[in-house]
Structures are given as C-alpha cells and as structure tokens.
Amino acid sequence: MFLEQSEYDSYSKLLDDPYETKLLSTSNTTIMTYSLAGTRELSSQMIETNKFGLPKCIKERNECQQIGIVGAGAAGLYSGILLAQAGHTVRIYEASNRAGGRILTYRDPTNPSIYMSELGAMRLPLDTHSYLNTLIRERYKLNITPFANSNDNAYAYVNGIFGTMKELRENPVIFKFNMTKNEQGKTSQTLWLTAFQPILQTLEQGGWLAVKNQWDSYSIDSYLKSVNMSRDTINYINILRNYESGTYCSILEVFRAVLIYASGSKFYGIDGGNDLLIQAMITECQSIDSDRCSIMYSMPIIEVQLNDSNKVQLRTKNETIDIVDTLIVATTAPAANLIKFEKRIDFVDKYRALRQIHYMCSTKVLLDFNVSWWYTQENINGGQSLTDLHIHSIYYPYIRNNQTNGGTIIAAYNLGTSSLVWQSLFESDIIELVLQQLIRLHRSSSNMRDYFQGGKVQHWCGDPYAHGAFARFIPFQETELFHQLQTPVSKIHFIGEHTTLVHGWVEGAIISAVHGALSVTRQKETIFDVVIIGGNLIGLSTAIFLSLKQPNLRIVILEKNTINDYNNQLHKYSQEHFRQIFDKEYLVQLANMSFTLWQQLEQISNLSSESILNTNDGFLFLRNPNMTQSTNEDNWASMKRICENLDMNCEYLNNTQLRIRYPMFTLIREYEGIFHDQSGYINITTLMMSLLRLIDQNSNITIREHEELLSLQLLQDHVKLITNRGILHSSHKVILIPDSNVKNISRLFNFDLNMRVLKLPIYYFRRLANFVRLPNGIVMNDRNEQENFSSFSIVSTLDYIIIKPTFIQNVSNFLIDSIYTETVLNWVSHHLNTIVNVSDYYINNRTYLVRSLPDNRFVLDYVPQTNKRILIQVGENEITFTPVLADILSDMVLFDGMNTSSKYTKYLEYFSFPQSHQAITEGIISSKGNQWLLSPSLFLWCSTLILIINCLNFYFKTM
C-alpha cells in the first residue's frame, strides 16, 4: 500500500494566500465529510468492529464456520482476526515466507531489530484514516512518529535548474515553466485547488454519486486541459505530484487524495517500523483461543473450486487439498487473477474485473550511509527533494537528538512507467546510477561515497507475490469495475485495497477486511423469532417470560452498551422502591400482579423468599395534610380511597404516631402517613444476577452487546434489522425498549414521545453519630416547596447518605449546579438536620438517569403502521412494574391483538400509543429559541422537586 502522491505540503502552511484560504474554507464541510473518498467506505457497522468485533457465532446452532483466507497481508490478517474472535475457525494461507504483503519494513540484515526504512507503505494519514488510527494507537498501543512530507531546505532540480523545494512550489517560473499570465504568481497549491473547484462544487451540490457520474470519464491530463490549465503548468503539476508517468489515470483518484490532504491530515509512521502493525496482528491472531486463527506460510493456493455440497475446496501448490465453508481472497487483483477458480463460468465477470483493473508499478531504492551527510553537510532533516532525473523523489530520515551516525535514505521513489525503466536494469547498476544522481543533486556532498554502506531495491510490479504496487483506476473503471471487484461469488469473498476506493493506503486494506468479514457473517444472516431492542431489566425479563411460555422461541436481546453498564446508569444503587400504593386503581392492580411475579421470579431463580423483593420494613407515605397536593406525582386522597376500596390493609398514622415510630425526622408541621406492609424495595444486584443467570442457562436466548439498531425494513413475512454490527431478521415480533435511545427510535418511525431523559448530580452528606435506621420508601410532599424525597431501609457501612434531586426550573434550559446545590441544602437543613451534618457534603462526578413521559407513566403498544409486528415499551424507570410490563409484552408477542386470552387486555387502554402532542412528527424543537414543546402536565412535573435520599451507602442502626 503506497501513497498516491510523492509530495504535498501540510495544508496548515498553505493559508498565506487569501484566495487559497477562501478555497479551503468554503469547501471545508465537504472536505471533512468526504475525506475518505466521498463514499460510505466506513459505515457505523464497520467502525464498531474496531472496538467490539463482530457478533459472536453460536456453535450449538451451527453458525460457526471453517474459513480459509488467501493472503496474510494487512487485509487477510485483520479479517481473520475479526472472524476468529467471533468464534469461527480461520486458516490463513500465505504464499511467501512472511506476513505483511506490501507493508515491508527494511531492517538491518545482520540485526533485524534495527529499523532502517520502508520498502512498502511508509506514511499514514492517521488524522483522516480514523479506523487505522484507532487500530494502531488504541487496539495495539503502538507508538507513532511524524512523517515529514516536505522540507523547504530540500532541493529541486528540474529542467536543468537548481533550487529549493520552497522555490519550486512558490515560483515555478524560475524553473522554466512557461505559464500563462493568469497562472503566474500563484503557488502550486493555489493552482491545484483552483483546478478542482468544478469537482468540489459537484460534490457539495450532488454528493459523490454526482461526482462519479460527471467526472469518471476524465483522466488527469484531460481534466486539467478541460479547466484551461496550460500545458507547461500541467507538466509542472505532474512533476511536483509524481503523476508524470500516470497522467492517463482517473482524475477521481487524484481528487480523493486532494480531499485527504485538504482535510489537514498529518502523516505518521509507526515508531520502529510499520511492520510492527503486522507483528501485532500476528500476535493477536495466534493468541485467540483453541487455535482458531492460524497462518500457513509458503502455502500458495493455485486452485479454488465450489463443490456441490456448498463447500469450497482449495488446492495448494504442493497438491494439498483443504475444504472450508467460506473463502476470503485477500491478495492483490493480479495475484487473484492467477488462481484457477472453478467452475470458470461462475467467475467470468470476476475474472474480467481482475484482468482489467489498472495497477501502478512502483520502485524504491534505499541507500545506507554510516554518516548523516544530508544533515551535517546539506542542512536537510526529513522531508523530500524532487528532480526530473530518473530518481525523481528522495526522502530523508529525520535526525533525532543530533545523532549523525548515518541512516537509510529512500534515494529513489518512482511510480508508473518510470518504475519500469528501473526494472530493466540489474540491481547493482540501479544502485550505482542512483548514487551518481544523488551526488549530482547534493553538490555539497560529493564525498557521500565515502559513507556509502550498501543499497536495496524493491520493484513491486516485479514482486512474485504482489505483482503490482497498488490499484489506481483509469477513466470509467470506477463506474464499470468497482462493484464487481467487491462482489462475492457464492461463498468466495474478495478483499484488499483494490476492492475499496481508498487505493494505495493501508486504510483501504483494513476497511476491506472489515467489509469482507461482515459480508461473511451476513451469509448466514441470523433469523430470530423475537428481537428485543434494549437490554434493561424489562428487556431481560421479557425474554425470560417469553421463553417460559414458549420454550422453542429463538430470542435475541440487542443492547448498544453493555448490559451491566447501562442498568447501572438507570439504577445507580443496588436497591429501588417497590410500592403498591398509587393514585390510580389500575396501577395498584398491576403493582399487585407484579408482587406475585417478583415472588415467582425468586422461585425460578432458586432464591429464598425476600431475596429480590424485600417487604420486611414495608413502605411509608408521609405528607402535610394542610397543604393541597394537586400538582404532586401522587394524589393523597386518591391513594387513601384506593387503599380502602381494594382492601389493601393500609395503616394510617397521625402526627403523634409518626413521631413515636419515626423520631429521626424533623416534623415542624402536622404530618400524617400511610403505611403498607406489602411494599418495600427490590434488590437490583440480586435481580440482575438472577436474570443473567437464567438467560445464560437458556440456549434459545442470545444477548448481543454493543449493537445498535440503525434501520429496519418491514418485509412480507419478516422484519429485517440493520445494526451497527450486521443484519438480522425477526420472523415474528420486534420489541423496542429504547430508554435513553428513544429519540433515535422516534426518528426511525417518525414520531416523538416527548420523553425527557435527564442526567442529574448526586449529593453525599455525612451522617451524625445519632443516626438511626430510616423507614423504607418515604415520600414527602410539600405544596410550597414542591419537595419529594425517598429512602431505603438498607444496612450498610459507609458514613454518608445520598440525596438525588430531580427538577427543572426553566424548561428551556437545564439547571446549573449552583441552583441544584442551593435547593438541596435548603431541603436538607429543614428536614434532616438531626441526622446529617448539613455543611459536610460533596458532589459526586457521577450522574444518574431519570426518564419522564408527559401524560402516561408508560407507553406499551404496537407501533402504528407496522401490522402489529413491532411493539414499543417506554416510560419511567419505575422498578415496581418491571415484571408485569415484561409479562404484558410477552402476551402481546404470543397473542396477536391481545384478545381475551390475556388477563392484561383490559389494561392496554392505559398504555396505548399516544396521540396529540406525544406524536409530533415535525420534531420537538420549536423555531424560536430552541425551546422544548412540553405539555402542561410535563411542565408541572418539571416544576416539582423530587429529592431522593438513598440510604444504601451508609451505616444504619437497627430500630
């Protein structure tokens, strides 16, 4: 993999020309958007593989394959790693005795630990090539070093004129280029960017497809003529950009390079040699469990045959026969063209594309010296010199810490037809001619022969394994060949930089590897009966209840985070309230059903009673009877009436009884309470462990983490889901439980639930020595201050209690911390001053999530216009209803239309998909001031302060 151009300056140095600055700035958005060739080379699915890999195959379902890969270059190695880590068994066949392909680092033959130079890929634009950047810096933790593309002090010798590179770039006229008056006085960069304005405008107006349709027929030479560039200026540009031997190539190849350079990307190499990337891949491959990733060296594949059993048969040069389920060909196109693919009739179009794609030749000549004469005698440190002599481009190593004990120069770098000249000479003659021309260019260093130690020549078109340097399309090939180069033939896939539009770069090889690996996994696009989007407690419980009712259902749970991390966000602590007292009768009835389901869950988890649902200390509601409660979350009178109507055995406590039973509270007014002994708290930690254990024991339930829904298609007999990591199908139902991802789901279906997901701070107050155990689940309401708090009767050992505020004062803005703190301090000083030190507190940098819908606690319904194949459940994170909501969802999956077969049918009217303001197709942001469009009820909710005291993390005395 090589760079397409021999020299470009860093664009950060080019903005001294006002017109040039305008050219760059007006196209900045386009340049940044299309810096990877203006195509969707890196989809969200592909990006995620760098961090999380591919979805795991399931051996018990015969999803794991035996995969063969031809070629151990960067593409072959990385695709093999991804597939092996996903559970497949991979064997990589390498024709040569080394891995790496066209990443070829030259090391001291007598001491390979000593880095000398690069015979292959030498520079990496990591600022633009984001996947490779993450791979090198984060996955493999490799150190990088800047690659100097230019140096003002380096030499230019063109048309018989000596000068500096700065002079060549800024004043080409002195090098006898006869430019027109309009071209004179402009730098090479200004001339270059001006020439590309027509394509940039097409890109901005119509995207990459429009660019391809309009400009794919142009070569470099014909395009520059079409924009009225003079012949001498074209000659000048071609020498400067190393296009002189390839002016017949497509202008689109050059334009993609312009986008990379104009994006401001800097260039790097890997400290110690670019082959360290290959070595890191080899190590990772060999470390995968059960030898699922292996590399076979000196094992060229000469024949590939698709047999009748839908397997792929491979024949090696030494007549070894192997059978695999799937094959990936990760060679160059010329190398792949040498393989005998059978039956040939199936490969007619593939062979044509492999034959016709244009490859560039490249020659590099390295010369080694024991004195750094270019630094000591020429004052050149890094960068490039340029000439129209045979050597064309010279790259100097960068001298660190004034070390002058020599190094290796890339003394000649040639592309295209100029490379072919070198291939006609013996290596000794090449080295001598290069040395002569190097002396001619560096007039102060005629003594460099005294320091010369030897040389190395690499012809990539003469390489017996690569057969070429890199792909570079000629006109029409992007339109006519690109798709066919990428397309698999049955179970045989083709990857490599030539199958992308990122030709000549290591990134092209890597993203082709990702694309190929994803393509292999899509061959067996997994089909599930039920797909659950969202791995919260309701999603996990729904999968379990479904499996209990219909054990043969194949169920998958997709969670864009990790299951534990996301549920920890929703439930920061290991306890959450369970209560059966509400101000609406249907909620009380559902809570009572949940009570039974919680107990059943304990039984099927083989847990003792009260392990998940603990009601030992009951639940207490507390309020000031002299204050009206019309805007509070729960209406006191309604709760009391429902308690009596449903015979719930609620206990009513007057102020005296409260003071006696709960002396820890400062009750400055007359308060009254409702106590319920069949309410309490849920142990979240035990619950999570139980759910995950039950799922782990069930082979029909799969959890796929770090997988996010991107889009879906409602097909005739199933739903096709496209995620950031692949494609899967639901043959029966899809359940959406989006939680914090509700906005993305809303956009997908063009509705909006006006759901607010807030991240709020957590306060820690030191308890006093006389602190005693609080009752479980207290809620306090005060009309004037709009305050609510709740607590847990859990024993712990730390010295702090935790207060969690939830309120929004201004619905168009989130509150700043000072307002939170002022309100919390005021509340604590009034109500908890006898049990905590009000002045001794701190704010945790963690936050917790609170969700709210404007009218309903929950939405649980079929998504409109999906033929009852997609359900949605969203709402408050009220743990009380988790099992009953999961049970309702499972019935809705099994009983289409929720007929009388389900005991929950009568409750669905309360959870129906919202109309009016909750389904706002135009979005939820107004055009004035970006204010939230909220319903009156949500406004009232936002005006209410809810203070939650979590007594998990501090010490309680026994009452």
Automatic annotation (TrEMBL):
It comes from Adineta steineri. The keyword Transmembrane helix applies. SUPFAM superfamilies: FAD-linked reductases, C-terminal domain, FAD/NAD(P)-binding domain. GO terms for molecular function: L-amino-acid oxidase activity. Keywords: Membrane, Transmembrane, Transmembrane helix. The keyword Transferase does not apply. This is Amine oxidase domain-containing protein. The lineage of its organism: Eukaryota, Metazoa, Spiralia, Gnathifera, Rotifera. Residues 75-516 form the Amine oxidase domain. It comes from the Eukaryota. Residues 529-892 form the FAD dependent oxidoreductase domain. The chain crosses the membrane at residues 938-956. GO terms for biological process: amino acid catabolic process.
